[in-house]
Design goal:
The complex is a heterodimer of chains A (907) and B (627). With 907 residues, chain A is mainly β. In chain A, 12% of the residues lie in helices and 36% in strands. Chain A has a 5-stranded antiparallel β-sheet, with no helix packed on it. Chain A has a 4-stranded antiparallel β-sheet with strand order 1-32-31-30, with no helix packed on it. A 4-stranded antiparallel β-sheet of chain A has the order 2-3-4-5, with no helix packed on it. The termini of chain A are far apart. Chain B is mainly β and 627 residues long. The termini of chain B are far apart. Classes of the chains: A mainly beta (907), B mainly beta (627). At the A-B interface, strand 34 and strand 61 of A face loops of B.
């Protein structure tokens, strides 16, 4: 043992190293939260030695005389000093353990749907059904608990109550509590804890008058499963508590009057929800911890009479257990740890898994395992196998619970999935340690993904409109489900693992989520204003494919109605519209080019029997040949075409159909325009391009050349393609300054479209994929290996507008081929021949619609087994007159000669 | 009898209760056994592979069922299939022997797990890895040794999914694979909605006909009544008017047929009162004047009659169905006479039924079929207007007292089928082509075990406007049966059209029995209504409402220049709606609910087939252009 002044520190360091070794290579298998607070516990154990060492160091630096005088003084004042120390200690203790957080009194508990398992329901949506989450706002309240507690658990929300367990990591007062907070104010309705309750990661589950929760963190050896009474008048009273011999980090599930929960090394338990006549917990069955059930940490699922759980490190399996008897029914080996709680829908379980855990990346976990194996004398082959087994990887599996647990599919990933899969509207949402939020369809095919640029280890919450994702980087995002783009973001908590393992819960416009240092927070509010539906121009705007809201369309289409009702093919040469309508706010805005009734006709999207209902007509002096835009309660329309005099841009109030303002458009201007909430951009004089405020005032104007296709707007840029000269340019939106421009070899044939840093421009020579920031050819798209994609892009000019979604980039070329490429990497997904070059493709979530002589066809690009099918026979209708179709409210709108505006739908 | 037996040994109340319960059980149809959650469409979509195979002949005791050909229709099928039959139970063996009775027998194999189709949770125990359909029976195929499949019983009872025959299963699979709109309905999709009392009859009603006699496209209702025929028409306001006196109808008929018997261009009615044939000729004012028809041949005990005309005839003729001696064709002669030509009977010993006239052989010439006690007689029409000697077109045990024969197309093949009914029961005589018919009642689904004998009448209709030919059976002492066509000549019992459930006076009245009925769109809403006379003499019109959608079918009528039956068929997109026979005064209906085009094809005897596309955005009437 070293000696001397520094000896204590050296010895301390040696002891620390030994402790860390113990932590990282415990004699037991690491759990999902293996050593989250291990160093703190280590510190606690060493604290006395540290204090002594510090005191000794200080003493050794002081003169002996002064020290002696100080000691004598302390001795004389020994009674007051001791009393003061006691008072301070008691005060600290009282403050930490007795004083409530203060604030408003909690309101009465309101009824609400149960939250009987982790994330609230078998689909693990993490949201109260029928409510929406926030898209605006900031922290409404935060509850710090007693002495700045951490909240690692995930809230359960029932009615106006938020239930959560806490973790007080103060070394002087390591403890936990169970809280019920008022969802609106954050005030404490009640709090409870069994004696000596440990800091806790397990989340509460609530059913009826019962709340059940586990206890402890990884090192807890005697965690309890506790049941708390929620009946009126008895809230917070502990009904029963059962002590296990390990930790209970798992969130219990309450199902059919029973509680199912895992207790790490102590195995798996089933309790009766109600205590016996003596108030004691009733164990129905208990599977002892053993090598057969290594590292059971997932929150369980129950489907009919089967309990489903995953086994983590060393277990590498999904196990199916008889809920009544505890007998194992079946087991699937997964070859990687399973920590994801199973989500269940329609008899299929969806489970995430992968290498690594909450604290350790796959590489770190692997290195720890390899270190231990080396120390234990593992052979090179064994090390190689372990290196392979524990390489970074992850997956989501789908298992048929009604068909002998057949594995239906596996979706492999580069990193683990630790949270649950959330299921909504036949779509699967989950986050991965690789930093992405993924969306799959029910067959395991990727619909899209969003890059959070930070690991996602918590479970997402999903509502009708949004997915809520919390990242390790400390951000909470609301992602628009249709576009997979964030609409709202807030910094919540610290950038840390510990601060990011609580999964958000959504109810009534708020998100509730735990943090490490900022308490349990309630964030945001839902604002309809923030939605700002927008139809920004032709086909909903560049790249929108006629369906900017991604309305699903029925699997087959039937003719439903036509406007005007008195046409119906009786005047086969008559044309109502030469541009597609706008469909928004439950109305259809039809640009009328028919000389008898020029202007903008507004129809209700609801039919009266078999006929359209006309809401009104805004008359213009000249026929309208361009699609209208609809934004912020106004419709914008340009009358006439180039060469007509007296043209105007009209801004029309959609309620009153009165003009809010008009401004002239020059005779020789194309009149092409695009808009969003913040402005209008229009070529209103020959060769010049103007930015106009929503109130019709000119912001700037600059010469650009001839613009025939609507520009693409971003928050800061305007991307413009001109046909004369043949150029593509990016302008600063505020000033019109040119950020970059490049010549095009061939004239553009449609609007530029963009996603991320990729810009696509259709031209007579083919499709260009460019870098948004400099206009150069995009190096990574399509990916190097997709030569067939490059060929598809270059072999023929682009004939129609291009549509871009989270999944596809699609257009029709001059050879009549519908080309579908993957948005992400440019892989050629599908080619369909004989598509009409006169009608742009329309996209919905899973389908692309295109036109042929026989009618509107539908193709599912990702479904190789399904041919394109005739969705709507239009051979008896007139030919399309508008160059495109529009979709809204589940219907398709197609201007047709002799029939006017045709609507199709059904199912 | 049961009651008398019961009272001998048990308390009278108990006995009466038992008897009542048994009577109710006997008269109430069994509840439908169609799987509401799993259809052939699900079968095809869930299957890993669908195979069309041909198997060899098999007899009980054979260890193997030889597979000759495998055609993979969908998915990844095996190149080889070895079917071991050593493990068959006796019932399955019997079915297999019956189904594989020929040298080569068509079958279909669906591989995959169809346990989801098991109604009531399915059976425990081993589950098949594939299902085979042969003839009319499903078999389970289980994993055996050495890659073989063992043929065994069907634990799932896929007959609730498909109870038709093999040929139609192939057709329906093809339909499902190629038509994105393919559906195999599990319910009729209609319910009784409205009832109207049009008359009361204190005496025997022999029959009813719906005839468009008014010239305005409205169906009138002729009730052939013991005390004088009645003629009703429904006003637009929903009231029924007895126009008998107004039009001067003074007949008492047992049988009737509509036609233009004097070449006036207006619809007349031929009537038979049991002794005398008369023509009720319509003048310009709409008045009917009776004119006797003297027939050289002795006509006894007429079973029915049907309109007929030679190609380009200027007047309608008639085909009479005497009880014996074979049909008699009345060929117009001169301005107002008829020449009677007896066609002769196929078998004088056999009882016969009513005749049906239509182009059953697909050559553009009308033929005559007449059901007999042991089958169907076919009289092929000839180009010169004559008829060939009768041939035996079908073998079927139709029995005596056949009271109904109606034409339909139950598998949408474009070939005319015949629905026959009477005391022995009901037969679905399916036209296999080239003058051959087969009774497919046993493989028709629910009618095969729900339909009762002793019908009072049978007729075809499209009760739910889906373009498929349904049929209804009348009973004198219990409720009417309506069977909806699921497609490809399999039918379901229309539970929602059970008279007792509708809570209408008319349906309640009809529950005790019906003696006659006629179908037409009396209300003008585009759907088919049923007018009937109850066993108690009340005349009710019942109309339906669709549970989903609106009827938008097309009613097809002949022009006044056409005097006899015309073959007509229709297609909605690629889907065939089958064939009909349209006659003067008796249009036909092609049902549809989606708005859009219907392609109609017709062939007037003596002329080429023609077609036209009709855009049906609402219920539409189409009159075939005159030749």
């Amino acid at each position: 043992m070293p000696t001397g002044p520094g000896a204590l520190f050296i010895n301390l360091a040696m002891e620390t190293d030994a402790m860390m070794q113990w932590i990282t290579e415990p004699s037991v298998t690491p759990a999902v939260v293996p050593a989250l607070v291990g160093p703190l516990q280590a510190l606690l154990v060493m604290l006395p030695a540290i204090l002594v060492a510090v005191a000794g160091a200080i003493i050794s630096m002081l003169k002996p005389r002064a020290i002696w005088a100080g000691i004598q003084l302390c001795w004389r004042l020994k009674v007051p000093l001791v009393a003061a120390a006691l008072v301070v200690t008691a005060g600290v203790w009282a403050f930490n353990t007795i004083m409530p957080a203060g604030g408003a009194v909690a309101g009465e508990a309101a009824a609400g749907a149960n939250w009987p398992l982790f994330r609230g329901n078998p689909q693990r949506t993490g949201a109260v059904a029928g409510t929406e989450g926030p898209n605006a706002g900031d922290v409404n309240w935060s509850y710090q608990g007693r002495g700045n507690e951490a909240f690692f658990a995930s809230p359960a929300v029932v009615g106006n109550r938020v239930y959560i367990s806490s973790a007080n990591m103060n070394p002087l007062n390591l403890s936990g509590r169970i809280y019920a907070l008022d969802a609106d104010t954050g005030s404490v309705a009640w709090e409870a804890a069994p004696p000596g309750y440990d800091p806790t990661f397990s989340s509460p589950s609530v059913k009826g008058d019962y709340l059940v929760v586990g206890e402890g963190l990884h090192d807890t050896k005697d965690a309890r499963v506790t049941c708390i009474d929620l009946s009126p008048g008895n809230e917070g009273e502990i009904l029963w508590s059962y002590e296990t011999s390990s930790h209970v980090e798992c969130t219990p599930i309450i199902h059919n009057g029973r509680v199912y929960v895992t207790a790490f090394m102590d195995g798996i338990y089933c309790f009766e929800l109600e205590p016996d006549a003596n108030g004691e917990p009733q164990v129905v069955w208990h599977i002892e911890g053993s090598d057969e059930y290594t590292d059971p940490e997932t929150s369980l699922a129950v489907y009919e009479d089967t309990v489903i759980l995953g086994l983590g490190i060393g277990g590498h399996a999904i196990v199916f257990i008889d809920a009544d008897t505890g007998e194992e029914k079946y087991r699937i080996d997964t070859d990687m740890p399973v920590f994801g709680p199973p989500a269940i829908h329609d008899g299929v379980a969806y489970i995430g898994m992968g290498t690594g855990d909450y604290v350790n990346t796959a590489e770190e976990a692997r290195d720890q395992i390899l270190t231990r194996m080396r120390r234990e004398g593992a052979s090179d082959e064994e090390l190689a196998e372990a290196r392979h087994t524990f390489r970074p990887r992850g997956a989501v599996w789908a298992i048929d619970l009604e068909d002998d647990y057949e594995v239906l599919w596996r979706h492999d990933l580069d990193r683990t999935v630790l949270g649950s899969v959330a299921i909504k509207d036949d779509e699967l949402y989950f986050g991965s340690r690789d930093g992405y939020l993924y969306v799959l369809d029910m067959e395991g095919r990727r619909i899209g993904r969003w890059n959070a640029h930070s690991p996602v280890i918590a479970s997402p919450a999903v509502t009708e409109r949004y997915v809520y994702v919390k990242t390790v980087g400390g951000s909470l995002y609301a992602i628009d489900r249709r576009r997979l783009e964030p609409v709202w973001e807030r910094r919540i908590g610290s950038r840390s693992i510990a601060g990011s393992i609580s999964s958000p819960a959504v109810s009534d416009g708020q998100v509730f989520v735990g943090t490490e240092n900022e308490g349990l927070v309630a964030v945001g509010y839902f604002s309809e204003e923030e939605i700002k539906p927008l139809w920004s121009g032709r086909l909903g705007g560049p790249g929108q494919g006629g369906n900017p809201e991604a309305w699903p369309l029925p699997s087959v289409g039937d003719f439903e109605a036509a406007f005007p009702a008195d046409w119906m093919g009786a005047e086969p040469d008559r044309t109502l519209s030469t541009a597609p309508p706008a469909v928004l706010h439950g109305s259809v805005f039809v640009p009328v080019s028919d000389e008898q009734t020029p202007g903008l006709t507004v129809l209700s999207a609801m039919l009266d029997g078999d006929e359209f209902m006309r809401e009104g007509h805004y008359e213009t002096a000249l026929p309208v040949h361009q699609s209208p835009a609809v934004v912020d309660g106004r419709a914008l329309t340009v009358e006439g075409k180039q060469g007509d005099s007296g043209r105007k841009l009209h801004a029309v109030d959609i309620e009153s159909l009165d003009a809010a303002w008009t401004r002239p458009v020059a005779t020789d201007a194309t009149g092409t325009f695009i808009t969003d909430s913040n402005g209008i951009f229009i070529q209103d004089s020959a060769g010049k391009f103007a930015a106009v405020t929503p109130e019709g005032e000119t912001l700037w104007r600059k010469p650009t050349g001839r613009i025939e296709h609507a520009p693409y707007l971003t928050g800061s840029m305007v991307i413009v393609a001109t046909t004369d000269p043949k150029q593509l340019m990016v302008l600063d939106r505020k000033t019109g300054a040119t950020l970059w421009q490049r010549d095009l070899d061939e004239a553009p044939t449609g609007s530029p479209v963009r996603r991320g840093d990729r810009l696509w421009q259709g031209t007579r020579g083919g499709m260009l994929a460019l870098n948004l920031y400099d206009g150069r050819r995009h190096e990574g798209w399509p990916a190097e290996e997709y030569g067939d994609s490059r060929d598809a892009m270059q072999r023929s000019g682009v004939a129609t507008e291009t549509a871009v979604t989270t999944r596809w980039v699609t257009w029709i070329n001059e050879d009549g081929e519908l080309i579908v490429l993957s948005t992400e990497d440019g892989e050629l997904i599908r080619t369909v021949v004989d598509a009409s070059t006169d009608v742009a493709p329309l996209v919905s979530r899973q389908s692309v619609f295109y036109y042929t002589d026989a009618g509107v066809h539908r193709v599912l690009p990702h479904d190789d087994e399904t041919e394109s099918m005739l969705w709507l026979d239009t051979s008896w209708l007139g030919e399309p007159t508008a160059g495109g179709m529009a979709a809204g409210d589940g219907h398709l709108y197609l201007p047709s000669r002799g029939w006017g505006l045709v609507r199709a739908g059904s199912d | 009898m049961l009651h008398r037996i019961a009272t001998a040994t048990v308390h009278p109340v108990i006995a009466a209760s038992l008897a009542l319960a048994l009577c109710l059980a006997a008269t109430s149809p069994a509840k439908a056994l169609i799987n509401p959650d799993f259809t052939p469409a699900d079968m095809v979509r869930r299957a890993n592979a669908v195979l069309e195979v041909e198997v060899g002949q098999w007899r009980e005791g054979d260890e193997r069922l030889t597979v000759h050909d495998i055609n993979t229709v969908r998915g990844d099928g095996p190149d080889e299939l070895v079917l071991d039959t050593t493990d068959l139970d006796s019932r399955s063996a019997s079915s297999l022997e019956e189904g594989a009775s020929k040298e080569r027998n068509k079958a279909m194999v669906f591989t995959g797990d169809f346990s989801a189709a098991a109604m009531g949770g399915g059976g425990a125990g081993r589950q098949p890895v594939a299902m085979m359909h042969l003839d009319v029976t499903w078999f389970g195929l289980y994993p055996g040794d050495d890659g073989r499949l063992r043929v065994g019983e069907d634990p799932i009872d896929l007959s609730t999914v498909w109870a038709g025959d093999q040929a139609m299963l192939r057709s329906v699979v093809q339909y499902i694979r190629t038509d994105p709109r393919a559906e195999v309905p599990v319910v009729v999709g209609a319910e009784w909605d409205q009832d109207e009392l049009f008359g009361e009859f204190d005496g025997t009603v022999y029959g009813m006909k719906a005839i468009e006699i008014g010239g305005d496209g409205k169906p009138w209702l002729l009730v052939m009544y013991e005390h004088g025929d009645r003629l009703f028409v429904r006003s637009d306001e929903g009231s029924w008017e007895d126009r008998t006196e107004a039009v001067g109808l003074e007949s008492r008929s047992r049988h009737a047929a509509a036609g233009d018997f004097n070449g006036s261009g207006r619809v007349d009615i031929a009537t038979w009162d049991g002794e005398q044939l008369a023509l009720q000729l319509q003048d310009e004012e709409g008045q009917l004047t009776a004119s006797s028809v003297e027939v050289d041949e002795t006509v006894n005990d007429l079973l029915g009659m049907a309109v007929w005309a030679a190609p380009d005839a200027e007047r309608s003729g008639l085909v009479l169905a005497p009880a014996a001696g074979g049909p008699i064709v009345l060929v117009p002669s001169g301005d107002d006479d008829f020449e009677a030509i007896t066609l002769g009977s196929l078998d004088e010993e056999q009882a016969a039924g009513p005749v049906v006239v239509g182009d059953f052989t697909g050559d553009g010439i009308n033929d005559i079929v007449q059901p007999l006690a042991d089958g169907l007689a076919l009289y092929r029409g000839e180009a010169d207007g004559g008829f060939a000697s009768p041939t035996h077109a079908a073998e079927a045990n139709l029995g005596e007292d056949i009271n109904s024969a109606d034409v339909g197309d139950f598998d949408a093949s474009g070939r005319l089928d015949v629905l026959v009914s009477g005391r022995r029961g009901t037969a679905l005589l399916i036209n296999e082509g080239d003058g051959a018919f087969i009774n497919r009642m046993e493989a028709s689904g629910e009618p095969s075990y729900i339909a009762r004998p002793n019908t009072a009448g049978a007729m075809t209709l499209d009760v739910n406007s889906d373009g498929r030919h349904d049929f209804l059976l009348l009973y004198e002492n219990m409720g009417m049966h309506v069977y909806f066509n699921r497609g490809f000549r399999t039918f379901g019992y229309s539970i929602s059209l059970e008279l007792g459930d509708a809570m209408l006076d008319g349906t309640d009245a009809a529950m005790n029995g019906q003696v006659a009925a006629a179908v037409a769109d009396f209300t003008g809403d585009g759907s088919t209504d049923v007018a009937l006379v109850t066993a108690d003499g009340e005349g009710w019109m019942l109309s339906t409402v669709l549970t989903d959608g609106q009827p938008r079918g097309v009613t097809v009528a002949v022009p006044e220049q056409v005097k006899g039956p015309v073959y007509v068929s229709a297609k909605e997109g690629e889907r065939s709606l089958g064939a009909r026979v349209v006659r003067p005064g008796k249009p036909v209906y092609f049902g549809k609910t989606a708005r859009g085009p219907l392609n109609i094809t017709w062939r007037i005897p003596g002329h080429d087939a023609e077609d036209e596309r009709v855009i049906a955005l609402e219920p539409q009437r189409f009159i075939i252009p005159a030749p």
